[in-house]
Design brief:
The chain has five helices and nine strands. The protein has helices spanning 37-50, 61-69, 163-177, 192-200, 216-220, and strands spanning 20-21, 24-31, 77-84, 98-105, 110-111, 119-121, 126-137, 146-154, 183-184. It is globular, with a radius of gyration of 20 Å. Keywords: Acyltransferase, Transferase.
Length: 228
């Protein structure tokens, strides 16, 4: 959240220093690791709440961990944007695959009220700002596989800093590098800002198709093989 001269807006001197980003914001893009799963799950819950479908969300931390790190499903990828008020120290941790870093000049200080909840390293001021998840799948329509773009979420105080484009571009770069034919995903019709964001990146809205889903009792009804 940026602060300006609006009435009752807190001044920089009144912001809690321990949760404030001042003039600089340092960011890095990396591949998710298993310790990120609790954070990814919390962000996934917020994405569902944003779309008013939290009551339909049935995933768990265990199911997300299995999807990302079980050898049977090792093609699912999640990328993470970490942020810090100071530059990232050199890492010799071979488990962390860093794809890029950025240094952002802030127009005004802002607060991250959830710093503690999304802290990556308890010994350093590094916090998760958002994530993207995607995976390749077979397509009988294209000659080669496609990416299914599962979801993307950025915490509110970090929006407007081009992290979404950064993560999307990294996914698209991998698609071109590995010969993927297309990236497919769904966006809510009411989410005009998301549609504008994606179309500005070159995406095309397919009005001829509708997403259908079969789940819950409707799916369980097929458990009786007498109907086959």
């Amino acid at each position: 959240m940026a602060y300006n001269s609006a009435p009752n807006s807190p001044t920089p001197n009144s912001l809690p220093k321990e949760k404030t980003f001042g003039n600089k914001l340092f960011a890095r893009l990396r591949v998710a690791i298993e310790s990120d799963v609790p954070h990814i799950y919390k962000l996934r819950q917020r994405l569902a709440a944003h779309h008013n479908i939290i009551h339909l969300l049935n995933s768990t931390e265990a199911s997300i961990a299995s999807g990302l790190f079980n050898p049977k499903f090792n093609h699912v990828t999640a990328l993470i944007v970490d942020v810090s008020p100071i530059s990232f120290p050199p890492t010799h941790d071979f488990e962390i695959n860093i794809l890029g870093t950025k240094e952002i000049d802030l127009k005004s200080p802002f607060i991250d009220e959830e710093m503690d909840e999304f802290k990556v390293d308890h010994n350093r001021d590094i916090f998760i700002a958002g994530y993207i998840m995607y995976y390749p799948c077979f397509s009988s329509f294209y000659e080669k596989s496609v990416f299914n773009f599962e979801n993307l979420y950025i915490r509110e105080c970090y929006r407007g800093k081009k992290f979404g484009k950064w993560m999307f571009s990294a996914m698209a770069f991998e698609a071109t590098r590995t010969g993927i034919s297309a990236i497919n995903w769904y966006t809510s019709e009411w989410n005009k800002s998301a549609i504008e964001f994606y179309t500005n990146l070159g995406a095309r809205v397919c009005d001829d198709f509708r997403m259908l889903t079969l789940t819950g009792k409707a799916l369980e009804a097929f458990d009786d093989d007498s109907n086959i």
